[in-house]
Write a structure and sequence with these properties.
Blueprint: E1 4-6, H1 17-26, E2 32-37, H2 49-58, E3 64-69, H3 77-83, E4 87-90, H4 98-107, E5 111-116, H5 125-128, E6 134-138, H6 153-167, E7 172-176, H7 184-189, E8 194-196, H8 199-202, H9 214-224
Parallel strand pairs: 1-8, 2-3, 3-4, 4-5, 5-6, 6-7, 7-8
Helix pairs in contact: 2-3
């Protein structure tokens, strides 16, 4: 299994965001995780398509994984597609018509995914898994960075991995929230292949040091190598 590390820019220094993203990618990260919050679906307000577009204009070529914590979903999808998103994932309870939202993302040229909160059942995957490129499991409740990992989400990860393999699908299984060197190996053993790490990565080292992320990403890779 190929493992991918996706630092969440929610924990980055926004005053120097382009530089932060450049440095974390140079240190070995694979994906830029882009948290979009609307102060409606979740009690926080973050960033929109203009920031995604700015990163692309800055020269970021890595995949950008846009996690929509917004309601409604469909209105904002074309804007993020135009801004350069690679993946667009959304919460099924935030869409009135899940299948339509998935199709809209695909038609816009992006890879669709569904996001499940810690207590959200996985039932909808029975009807949508073959239409997805990614399943994202929240291991914290959405809305804020720096929360502690919720252990029962590992059981959900095992269930989703079993579904993916049973259908012979090429769908990424991502996890977001409280992931770091202390638990990333256990998370990988549950079937996860893509790891969102915000505080663990962007909180490492001295701000302004271009090599500040080398050791933390190396430690994450070292734990994954033990799986």
């Amino acid at each position: 299994m190929t493992y991918r590390i996706a630092p969440s820019i929610l924990s980055a220094n926004f005053a120097r965001l382009g530089e932060e993203v450049d440095n974390v990618l140079k240190s070995g990260a694979d994906i830029v995780h882009f948290d979009v919050m609307d102060n409606h679906y979740v009690p926080n307000l973050t960033i929109g398509p203009l920031v995604c577009e700015a990163l692309r204009k800055h020269g970021v070529t890595a995949p950008i994984d846009v996690h929509l914590m917004v309601k409604p979903v469909d209105r904002i999808v074309p804007d993020f597609a135009k801004a350069g998103a690679t993946y667009i994932t959304f919460h099924p309870e935030a869409s009135e018509h899940i299948d339509r939202s998935i199709g809209l993302i695909r038609e816009a040229g992006c890879k669709p995914g569904l996001v499940f909160n810690p207590a959200t059942p996985l039932d909808v995957l029975e009807w949508t898994l073959d239409k997805l490129d990614m399943v994202l499991l929240m291991s914290v409740n959405p809305g804020f960075g720096g929360q502690k990992f919720i252990p029962h989400v590992l059981d959900k990860a095992r269930q989703v991995r079993k579904m993916i393999e049973a259908r012979g699908l090429n769908v990424s299984l991502e996890i977001d929230g409280g992931v770091g060197p202390a638990n990333i190996r256990e998370v990988a053993q549950a079937g996860v292949d893509t790891f969102v790490a915000g505080s663990a990565v962007f909180g490492a080292g001295k701000d302004g040091d271009p090599h500040r992320y080398d050791s933390i990403i190396a430690s994450l890779r070292a734990e994954l190598a033990k799986v």
